[in-house]
């Protein structure tokens, strides 16, 4: 989220922080309950009108390499001689970067068409391999933003004008293994979600006269 968007209602007060906490929990739960992060992001994009078209596009970062660790090879059930490819992308909804994804995958467990698409295009990984009807097993889900300050429930509600809510660049990180229908692991992904998931106007509370 741009830090100049205070006019969009994201002011630093308890009501806004409570909304942000609920939204982050909802987003996290949605990711955990569906196999494709790409489709989850598209639903979020459409629901919150982040762009004129609720469509996720990927920007492939080329000339980037991360060697798989011994643990990752064990999790993917491959030996040291089996090739593992690495892919890093940024996933966009319109102009908003919603996530950055590191992906290690076993090309021998994908079709030739899938491999070509992953190597030669910016297609999001989940969309490229959707014909596998894969399932996702989350290894870890870490919330990176403490939305509510410690002891917030014991503090008086502040009044008056508030500065814009300062949201960190990264708010959530998921690490997961993707499995084929035959329960064979073929990919490990680390997804880091950005504050851009909150890039929509927040409706302020209505003050009704009694």
TrEMBL record:
InterPro entries: Chorismate_lyase_/UTRA_dom_sf. It comes from the Bacteria. This is Chorismate lyase.
